[in-house]
Design goal:
The complex is a heterodimer. Chain A contains 20 helices and 25 strands. By secondary structure, chain A is an alpha/beta fold. Chain B is of the alpha/beta class. Classes of the chains: A alpha/beta, B alpha/beta.
């Protein structure tokens, strides 16, 4: 079809060149084709619309029409929850063996309406939130409709609020699920556990081994590493539009907005207000509101009326006190307002505490210390408060703001337990996006000076300059710490010289032949590299002395996470052109070293070959230039550190060095190199290179000291 | 033309064929009933009346649920809020009292007591203490004694390094338990403390450093080592799934089994979840072998603060093949990170009894501090929470160690702190040289002399402040509140520096904010003949210390010096003034594990004769390094063989091109 359309487009251009009768002939032919195409199109889509509308009517049923299941009064009831359950005792991990890509598969039971013997419903069929929750799971990567391959089962029996269900009958309904098996691998979501008068902190429905994602666990009911503590969803999250308010000082220092508080707590809050005056605001239910005002959205202090949750944005700290239950929906509203929650609820397990670092977003105060709350909060420095406000808002955005966010975070936590080697890190859970973006985590962070005995592997990239290559090999082999020499033979048309012709050196010499003449072959992580230190050296770098190379290796040992090289280069911002410029003059600064002679950690070979951002690697191979600049970008980007240039400036035989000698100014070369910098900076999305004003010399370099007593006397000779 | 026609005819034919095909297919689909479309996921239905569903919150229920009063902790169950009284700790600071040992004292108990008594938290008065420590490693019989200030166990920490020792006979009451490898079921998170299971021979101080010598695994190293009853069995990289079943033993000769305490040499160490294998966990950490714990029944040590997901893998013992496949396929980046973290954790929290005890106390202090405790970042990144004091700041940006993680860099100003000691002469020339630096923010003169400071000081471009000291050498390292910048240039009255030297050194410091950047150096050495450490000021090819008479460093090290050094060490510094330099260098090296940085100095010769450099060292000074090393328990100093010079330093190029030409005066 595509081809014919193309032909149609080209058609008119050809027509004037044809004879009249042909023209008519063709016009007729094309109109037939065109008509046919239109007809096909209509035909194609018309039956589809019937089909999909059919589907639509099948899927879009009413909740009232779901099948009814009658539970006999004597049907089995599961055991009560087993408090000693852990993943390795109560969870059947074999069921997760099928799941590819380290992702658990979740099955959802279809919706039924459960009634008891006399036909009275066991509970409301399903709540809006639970429907949303199941929809979110169903739309996610976790979902499977194949019950035999599922690792986790989610019943459609809604137990979000214990008050709306009959405990015994709900338990019976759970027990008759087709894969119940003592609740193994079943996940229940509950936000409001317990009921009057004693309000248990976990769902009272007997559930045997089922996992519970509960809002309001206490340390006594929470099975660490098995249950998941979730937030109590606040319906205001969806109902009210509350734009983000930046951190900073706010009108009230401490605010309490909860309506139903125990008189004793209210008394203590009142005492706080009396003591600290204006900066503390204790709100309560409004008593004299007219009928039409939504009481949930208003709070009062004496005769002043405040809008809720907007008033939360006026406070730096907001009290979240326990009510009958430990989990309070107000926590969600408070976080959203960027108000730092002051959680006063002993033994409460904060939502997602398994992965979220609540110290960064909240202050937990023991109930006994409630009277001291003001002074405790005052001791927190302003900068930390602002950090906490930002963090609170981020927690809400990521894990509280919708039922979907809550459901997915819960599944991720369970997923991480089952596939710990693919788990999400602390930073990924807790760092707000702005922090993640700016921070650098050095892959070689451990301060470690590798032993000198390890030595280094020299890698010489060569094409066909055999004579010069042999000289380089002979020179490099004089370096005491050399442990192996690898020649990367990049010429496919010519074989390397016979073995007998190579210089005889004291260390193993290996020749690797490449399949294609690519610059990136220089940075391939060859199996032959056994040392951590790699010396990349061009086949024409014959001017470096043994002392200089050995000293370079010593410097690398002190900076194993950096590029340590000899000729240094600089990038500059060209204000006139508004772009980066490459500089090879005698400058006082360095930001790159050429990899024609440089030491670095072999891990960077792996990064260059497999983790180079964007198309840089192919681009370099295609242009046959700038592999060294790309390596400088890569290393600076992952480590956040500058290169180390070693030893004084020398005359190097390389295209741009002739420029300094004033013999010929290779202008195009400089333009190309500048282009590389601009290209890489745009791919990396930033300029990672760091400019420094120092280079490394031996301790006694150029000091007034007997040369023969210096460790590296032969340095800087031209 | 002919060919044209033919071509178009063919095309027309082709098009009509296409037409036909496209037309017939949907027709066929209409005829053949599709039924439920197989393969397509069905998913949760979109209910017609989804909009009409009720919320799970019944109107009026929330937030108005029935109020309830706090409940008293149930019998025997305790948590931090209910069973610990922090009021004592707030007023008097965190003070720890240890019950004196009973007559039957075990080796380990002795070590524990020694390390607490040496710590800065220790107090001899039980009434002043906020935490009472009771060591329960005594042999059975000595347990039943209830200590005098027991008070129902409130604010008590019961130390149990061996799980078996007299547990049942003792009523714990409200006491916290710090136990080695506690069972997951009885462990109370946030109240108890999980300790590592230590071998009897664990050193009190210092301790063996980690075994890791290189960041990435050697390509020839084995992938797996398996913890066995008597040692480690190393599995070759090629043997795939066998380490679980016993059948592989034939494949590997007996030489593969390392008996006893030998450390495993492999990338991953498989450790079964039994209690007995907890000891293997520490061995793996020390060896830099990534621990793979198979459903451990015990709580990982210090799990309250240490993020073990960064250093170990807790896997399910029932899925051995999946675990193995995951280990084999683990990306090098992750392996690299895990390996390094094992070493960092070993060296920071586990290598000696003293570190284990200090970590335990630090955890409890963090609970008391609440919001001003160590953030998680400080616990889990070098140099670790024992060397990053939360009393200094809770913001990682204030420390010299975390600039990169925070995507930030040190500010561009420094404060010069000039110590005027016995000479009593105002260092006018020095003040002018330092004030000339574009980076200088302020000059503080620390007047530590019997004579009163002169009333008038030279006019400088930057503020100059005179602080009166107490005439103690360690005064210079007090965290003076007047210091307003992160960088400090520490100077002696007799130091002589030029403005370009100061400028260049400061720019270098900005690249290495966690290290000391100095001009004059000493180097330490092991004196084979006398069997002790010595140091020399002679110029040699390497160095390991820089003199604080002219050095840049971060102001955090003042806090560390003043608040973290044991009293014995500070007394030592008072006794022999050159010792403060040694001490400061030890402290920074212990925190960074890296050498200091030397920058060129134009005045090597005159300084060599200055009184604070031990040219012909008096015995007390020469003795100092050996005593400091003994107090530290190990030698933290690291040698460097390089000096950082300006890029064009002494290059054969016009001096006009050079930014720091002042450094090259002969």
């Amino acid at each position: 079809m595509c081809a014919s359309v193309k032909y149609n487009i080209r058609g008119p251009a050809l027509i004037p060149r044809m004879k009249i009768k042909h023209r008519i002939y063709y016009i007729t032919l094309f109109s037939i084709v065109l008509l046919g195409l239109i007809a096909t199109g209509v035909f194609q889509f018309w039956p589809h619309s019937i089909e999909s509308s059919n589907d639509w009517s099948v899927e879009k049923r009413s909740v009232r029409d779901v099948p009814v299941v009658r539970l006999p009064a004597d049907s089995p009831i599961p055991e009560r929850g087993d408090l000693s359950c852990r993943m390795h005792t109560c969870f059947d991990v074999y069921r997760c063996g099928f799941n590819p890509k380290n992702k658990i598969k979740v099955f959802i039971y279809s919706l039924k309406k459960y009634v008891d013997d006399s036909g009275v419903p066991v509970s409301n069929t399903i709540s809006r939130e639970y429907n949303e929750l199941l929809t979110a799971i169903s739309d996610s990567d976790y979902y499977t409709d194949d019950i035999t391959r599922a690792c986790l089962f989610v019943p459609s029996i809604d137990v979000l609020n214990q008050n709306t269900l009959r405990i015994k009958e709900t338990a019976q309904a759970l027990a008759q699920l087709s894969r119940w098996d003592r609740g193994t691998n079943h996940l229940l979501f509950n936000m409001l556990p317990g009921g009057p008068p004693d309000y248990n902190t976990a769902l009272d429905v007997p559930r045997d081994r089922a996992l519970l994602a509960g809002g309001g666990f206490s340390t006594w009911t929470y099975r660490q590493g098995y249950d998941v503590s979730i937030p109590v969803y606040s319906p205001l999250s969806a109902e009210v539009d509350l734009p983000e308010k930046g951190p900073g000082p706010r009108r009230y220092f401490l605010l309490s907005s909860q309506m139903a508080l125990h008189p004793e707590y209210r008394e203590e809050l009142g005492a706080l207000q009396a003591k600290h005056g204006e900066s503390v605001l204790v709100l309560d239910k409004c008593t004299n509101l007219s009928e039409d005002v939504l009481s949930v959205r208003k709070r009062c202090h004496e005769h002043q009326v405040f809008d809720y949750p907007q008033v939360l944005q006026e406070a730096t700290f907001c009290v979240v006190l326990r009510g009958a239950r430990l989990g309070q929906a107000v926590l969600s509203d408070v976080l959203r307002a960027g108000c730092v929650p002051v959680v006063i609820a002993d033994s409460y397990i904060l939502p997602f505490s398994e992965v979220l670092d609540w110290k960064r977003a909240s202050v937990v105060v023991p109930e006994e210390k409630m009277a001291d709350v003001y002074s405790i909060l005052q001791s927190i420095p302003q900068r930390q408060i602002e950090e906490m406000q930002r963090q609170a808002r981020w927690f809400w955005e990521a894990y509280f703001q919708s039922i979907k966010a809550i459901a997915l975070a819960t599944l991720q936590i369970i997923n991480d337990r089952i596939y710990p080697y693919a788990a999400i890190s602390y930073e990924e859970w807790n760092d707000p996006p702005t922090v993640k973006w700016g921070s650098v985590s050095n892959p070689l962070f451990l301060p470690l000076i590798p032993p000198q005995s390890q030595g280094f592997t020299a890698i010489v990239l060569t094409y066909d300059r055999v004579e010069s290559l042999f000289r380089v090999i002979t020179e490099v082999s004089k370096v005491p710490s050399l442990s192996k020499l690898l020649v990367v033979w990049n010429n496919q048309n010519k074989s390397p010289p016979e073995e007998s012709l190579w210089p005889k050196i004291r260390v193993p010499l290996k020749v690797v032949r490449t399949a294609e003449n690519k610059l990136s072959n220089r940075f391939f992580p060859y199996d032959e590299i056994e040392t951590e230190a790699v010396l990349a050296i061009d086949d024409d770098i014959i001017m470096l002395t043994s002392d200089e190379l050995q000293f370079g290796y010593e410097v690398w040992r002190e900076f194993p996470d950096r590029l340590v090289g000899y000729p240094g280069r600089l990038h500059l911002w060209d204000h006139e052109m508004s772009k980066w410029k490459y500089e090879s003059e005698w400058t006082n600064e360095v930001s790159m070293v050429l990899t024609g002679a440089a030491f670095y950690h072999k891990y960077f070979n792996y990064l260059y070959t497999y983790k180079m951002p964007g198309d840089i690697k192919n681009w370099v191979d295609a242009h046959m230039n700038c592999e060294d600049i790309a390596m400088n970008f890569l290393v600076a980007n992952v480590t956040g550190k500058a290169v180390i240039k070693v030893t004084p400036r020398k005359k190097f035989k390389c295209p741009e060095c002739t420029a300094i000698d004033g013999l010929s100014l290779d202008q195009t070369h400089m333009v190309e190199r500048s282009e590389c910098i601009n290209k890489f900076a745009s791919v990396f999305g930033t300029m990672p290179l760091k400019v420094v004003e120092h280079r490394a010399d031996p301790v006694l370099y150029k000091d007034d000291f007997p040369e023969k007593l210096k460790s590296f006397p032969n340095i800087g000779s031209l | 033309m002919q060919s044209w026609r033919r071509k178009s005819l063919w095309l027309a034919l082709l098009a009509s064929w296409l037409l036909g095909l496209l037309g017939i297919l949907p027709l066929l689909r209409l005829v053949v009933p599709t039924g439920p479309r197989a393969g397509a996921p069905q998913g949760w239905p979109r209910w017609l009346d989804a909009e009409l569903l009720q919320s799970f919150l019944q109107p009026g229920e929330l937030p108005e649920d029935a109020p309830q009063l706090r409940r008293a902790p149930r019998g025997g169950s305790c948590d931090w809020g209910a069973c610990f009284d922090t009021s004592k700790c707030r007023s008097g600071g965190f003070k720890v009292f240890v019950y004196p040992a009973a007559e039957l004292i075990s080796e380990m108990q002795h070590k524990i007591l020694a390390s607490i008594e040496g710590s800065r938290y220790h107090t001899v008065s039980p009434t002043e203490a906020c935490l009472h420590l009771l060591s329960l490693d005594a042999p059975a019989g000595a347990c039943s004694l209830v200590p005098p200030k027991w008070n129902g166990g409130k604010n008590h920490l019961v130390l149990r390094l061996h799980p078996a020792s007299c547990s049942a006979t003792f009523q714990l009451g409200q006491a916290m338990v710090a136990e080695a490898s506690p069972t997951v079921d009885t462990f109370r998170p946030g109240f108890d403390v999980a300790l590592p299971l230590l071998p009897e021979a664990h050193p009190v101080r210092g301790g063996a450093p980690g075994q890791l010598r290189q960041h990435s695994p050697h390509p020839g190293a084995a992938l797996l080592a398996l913890a066995e009853e008597r040692g480690w069995r190393v599995a070759g990289t090629d043997s795939s799934a066998c380490p679980w079943d016993g059948h592989c033993e034939q494949d590997h000769g007996p030489e593969q089994t390392h008996p006893g305490a030998a450390l495993p040499n492999a990338t991953f160490c498989l450790i079964p979840g039994r209690h007995a294998d907890a000891l293997r966990f520490l061995q793996a950490l020390q060896a830099g072998c990534i621990p793979v714990l198979l459903s451990p029944r015990w709580e990982l040590p210090f799990s309250e603060v240490i993020d073990w997901t960064k250093a170990a893998i807790v896997a399910d013992e029932r899925l051995p093949l999946q675990v193995l496949a995951a280990l084999q396929e683990m990306p090098p980046t992750r392996v690299l990170a895990l390996r390094q973290q094992t070493q960092f954790l070993w060296d920071t929290y586990f290598s000696s009894v003293e570190k284990v005890i200090r970590t335990t106390l630090e955890i409890i202090q963090d609970r008391i501090l609440g919001a001003s405790a160590h953030p998680s970042l400080l616990w889990n990144n070098p140099p670790g929470a024992l060397l990053a004091l939360p009393t200094f700041s809770t913001s990682p940006l204030d420390f010299p160690f975390y600039y990169l993680q925070q995507g930030s860099r040190p500010a561009g100003r420094f404060s010069a702190l000039i110590w005027v000691g016995a000479t009593g002469q105002p260092p006018l020339k020095l003040i002018q040289a330092v004030a000339g630096s574009q980076h200088c923010a302020q000059i503080l003169v620390l007047w530590s002399n019997d004579k009163p400071p002169p009333p008038s000081w030279p006019e400088t471009a930057v503020p100059l402040l005179v602080i009166e000291g107490h005439r103690k050498v360690s005064d210079r390292f007090l965290p003076h509140s007047a210091i307003s910048t992160d960088a400090i240039l520490s100077l002696d009255a007799h130091s002589s520096l030029s403005t370009p030297e100061v400028d260049f050194a400061f720019v270098v410091w900005q690249s290495f904010p966690e290290r000391m950047v100095g001009f004059l150096t000493w180097s330490h050495f092991w004196d084979e003949a006398q069997g002790r450490w010595g140091y020399t000021a002679e110029r040699v090819n390497e160095f390991s210390m820089v003199l604080t008479s002219a050095a840049f460093y971060h102001r955090y090290y003042h806090t560390l010096f003043t608040h973290s050094l044991p009293k014995a060490l500070r007394r030592l510094a008072e006794a022999a003034p050159p010792c403060v330099d040694v001490l400061m260098n030890f402290l920074v090296a212990a925190a960074t594990k890296l050498p200091p940085i030397k920058v060129p100095s134009g005045r090597q010769h005159e300084d060599a004769s200055s009184p604070r450099v031990p040219g012909d060292l008096e015995p007390a000074a020469q003795d100092c390094i050996d005593r400091v090393a003994a107090e530290f328990g190990h030698m933290p100093l690291v040698s460097s063989r390089l000096r950082l010079d300006p890029v064009l330093f002494k290059d054969p190029v016009s001096v006009l091109r050079k930014k720091y030409r002042g450094l090259e005066k002969p």
